[in-house]
Amino acid sequence: MPNVIPTKGNLITIKRSLALAWLGFELMDRKRNILIREMMNMIDTANNVQGQIDSTFTRAYEALRDANISLGICDEIAQSVDIDNSVQIRFRSVMGVEIPIVNMDESEPSAVPYGFAFSNATLDRAYFEFWRVKMLVCQLAEIENSIYRLAVAIKKTQKRANALQNIIIPNFTADIKFITDAIEEKEREEFIRLKVIKARGDKR
Q: Taking a C-beta distance cutoff of 8 angstroms, is the pair 9, 175 a contact?
C-alpha cells in the first residue's frame, strides 16, 4: 500500500508530479538518442582516422629507417626541430556534454627545420610523414575523448531515464490509483450513509 494520505490535495499534487516525471523521461530519452547519434557518427570517423594513422605510421617508420640507414641515427638532427606549441583545446556543448575541439596549425611545412649539409631526401620524407602522423593523432585524440565523454553521458542519461520509467512513474501511478480508489470508496460510503439517513427520515 502506498505511504500517502488519500486526499484530493495529494491527488492533484501527485498528478502534477507524474506529468513532470513523464516530461523528464521524454527529455532524457530525446537527449540519449541525440548523444547516441552523435557518438555513432564519431565512431565512423574514428575508424577512418585510425586506418589513416596505421598506414601513415608505417610510411613514416619506413622513411625513418631509410634515413637512419643512409645518415646514421638521426637523433642529433631531430634535436634541431622546434617543439610544437600550436595545439589549443576548446570545448563545444552537445546537450550539456562538453566535447573537446583540438585546434592546431594544419598548414603543411613549406621547409624542413634542419640544414641540408647533414641530411638528405629520406630524412625529409620521414619529417613530413611524421608531421602527418601528428595531425592525425591530434584528430583521433579529439574524437576518442569526445566518444568517451559521450558514452559516460549516455550511461548517466540511460540510468536516469530507467529510474523515471521503472521506479518513479510507476510509484506515482500506484499512488494515484490508491488515492482515487480511497476517495471513491469514501464517496460511496458517504452516499450510502446519506441514503440511509434519508430512508429513516422518510419512515418518520
A: no
Alpha-carbon Rg for the chain, nearest whole angstrom, is 34
Q: What is the CATH number of domain 8-203?
A: 1.10.287.3240
For 78-97, how does the pLDDT look when each residue is reduced to its tens digit (9 = 90+)?
A: 666 777 777 888 999 888 89
DSSP assignment string, 20-76:
HHHHHHHHHHHHHHHHHHHHHHHHHHHHHHHHHHHHHHHHHHHHHHHHHHHHS--HH
Q: What element of type H or E holds 102?
A: strand 97-103
User: How far apart are the C-alpha atoms of 144 and 135, rounded to whole Å?
Assistant: 14
Q: What is the pLDDT of residue 118?
A: 63
Confidence of residue 115 (pLDDT cuts 50, 70, 90): low
| C-alpha cell read off for 119 | 641530411
- 157/58 Cα distance (integer angstroms): 40
- DSSP 3-state assignment of 82? coil
CA distance 49 to 99: 18
Q: Are 157 and 35 in contact (CB under 8 A)?
A: yes
Neighbours of 122 (CB within 10 A): 19
How many C-beta atoms lie closer than 10 Å to residue 18's C-beta?
17
> Taking the model in full, what pTM does it have?
0.74
Give the pLDDT band (50/70/90) at residue 30: very high
Nearest to 15 by CA among 160, 173, 168, 162: 173
